[in-house]
Give the backbone structure.
Amino acid sequence: MSTSAYQKLGVSATKEEVHRAIAGTDPGLFPGAFCRIGTDVLGGDPDYCSALHSDDAGTKAIVAYLQFRETGNADIFRGIAQDALVMNLDDLLCIGAVDRFLLGNTINRNSFVIPGSVIGEAIAGYSDVVKSLLPYGIEIVATGGETADMNDAVRTIIIGATLATRLRRDQVIDNSRIQPGDVIVGFSSTGQAVWESRPNSGIGDNGLTLARHALLHRDYGTRFPESMDPGVDRQATYRGPFHLSDRPAGLPMTIGEAILSPTRTYAPLLKKIFDVVGRSAIHGLVHNTGGGQTKCKSFGKSIKYVKTNLFPVPRILELIAEHGQVESKEMYQTFNMGHRLEAMVDPKTAPEMIRLSQEMGIEAQVVGVCETSPRNVVEIRTPTGSFEYT
Amino acid sequence: MSTSAYQKLGVSATKEEVHRAIAGTDPGLFPGAFCRIGTDVLGGDPDYCSALHSDDAGTKAIVAYLQFRETGNADIFRGIAQDALVMNLDDLLCIGAVDRFLLGNTINRNSFVIPGSVIGEAIAGYSDVVKSLLPYGIEIVATGGETADMNDAVRTIIIGATLATRLRRDQVIDNSRIQPGDVIVGFSSTGQAVWESRPNSGIGDNGLTLARHALLHRDYGTRFPESMDPGVDRQATYRGPFHLSDRPAGLPMTIGEAILSPTRTYAPLLKKIFDVVGRSAIHGLVHNTGGGQTKCKSFGKSIKYVKTNLFPVPRILELIAEHGQVESKEMYQTFNMGHRLEAMVDPKTAPEMIRLSQEMGIEAQVVGVCETSPRNVVEIRTPTGSFEYT
């Protein structure tokens, strides 16, 4: 399969069209930061700034829908609420916000296929995350929620979240500080952190449309046509060998569990790192979401990111590449491929960060370095080949 | 047609199932207020509180899509961004928040049918609203935005917004203060306010699935099957006589313009009223969204809301009732029917509020009174009949 595997499904990993659409908008107070940062409109304090971030769990919710239809257990949607919340939380971590947030949620469903029990479980899922983070000094206050029946617009369900935050301007992590000579510390997306109740497959919540169609059996398209766009070439959809309850070799859980493994938040770890190492020692933080391992390319100036020591590829992602015949180059710019968070720091800062991470149950290592370059480039060297993204 | 006109389309106007799903959640600091209000997690000030509200333009975006496909003009989506923003803003007005907000937006599209130009216009639409309100002392700072291609989940497009705010606890409008003897002041949803550039049809952004199918011609379902749920009974969809460019008698604009008339914000008016009349004189504020004229039933205790002097029904809503054969009782619990905002106040406060509203170009009048009742009830007396909602 060519590098357009994802585009055949109507999804752009590089989002060029979106970037063009928002090109003229105000870049905010810290144009180089991971999220747009505004003035402190809610506090009126010139020493503070603010950010608000909205995102949803995307098509991972469709996999939960398939699992729900097979098992009848609506509680699988708790994890989807975690995905939605963490996709916002971990983006905001990357600007240095870590401990005080206001949370809202949105659920848009097709009422013909999604019963009220699913809404109840999703709402409980947000609450689970909020409670689990409180012991680590992370306070999230839930306020508004909106649930709508949108059958003419939504085939199954969309589960979203928004977080708002304020922070001191001198505490902002501004990725424009990334410089040649920095090392890149990666924090594993797999394993089990001390604040987690079970191991994570490492899949996160990007590339999920591709994952679903690459792994799952044609049956699902036939039985649940509402789970796909009728406009997509049928050859590109549900073209995998697996059912959700299958346990392929080397995967310590079912395919369903691995795809639906809720996205880990790195919040307790980053709070610890900010406290011990200090924010000022961190030149950049990148959440490897859309764009995967190439996400860093949008940050810093005149930097070549050279990644030569990545984590082993999580088994579930290997299966996607194998059964979906997705080329390695596309895999690295679609999925996190082993670490969903990376920090650009001075080499002498790295060991302490790695130690703190390991103490909290998350593998961490120096995965690469930052070099000088006429323009931003990402070079990834792996056992399956070397790839350059310009 | 029976009272189930809306349910046939898969939409619940009363949202009973949703209310059951969220029944156990924390009601917040002011359980009687229009929106859930949390502690001041972002400021840590015990005298303050906070709220965050997310909502989207709903299926009104589908009408914009049809118009866009017919005319090729993507700028119609600017109004949809206004709808999304105002559905949040005017809910927050009802707790007394009026002048400082943090804004985020979300756009989920089907990339096969929605080009990048639509995203650009929608984002410009948010910006238009922000700019138009600044001269009235209303400061909205735009921060994050997220745009995703979700073809397997979204048939056309969903355009959403989130607003976060902080306010002093002693400035909160707490609808539990609504009391027998209060009058209900209604603020018209039609006409042209001083901050608006054209007259409003009064449709707002609730009941839009019903509006579209009641008014628009069968052609639209045939030409644009992506604009509806294939699971809905075809008899219930696109069963009207109109094309978007039609101008029925008594409607001073085309059907398309009337359906797509962007939802008015009452923010400049309420800011003026809060300044001149004072928040403490206002016992309740209700944004007549889902539930229409019966929305007030969820607020106050042991109140019978008797509405006997409503505004003339906006022509576009008359057309929906007529061509959709929707019974009057259902119309009043689905659409705003003439005023989208109402205030419950002491009778002596009403004249000043009405004067201020008229000065700003919005008709206002006493539409009803609050009486004692064993439980909350809404009684509506109109030229087409009297209806009780229990």
About this structure: The first helix of chain A runs from residue 16 to 21. The first strand of chain A starts at residue 38 and ends at 39. Chain A is about 30% helix and 25% strand. Chain A touches chain B through 85 residues (CB under 8 Å).
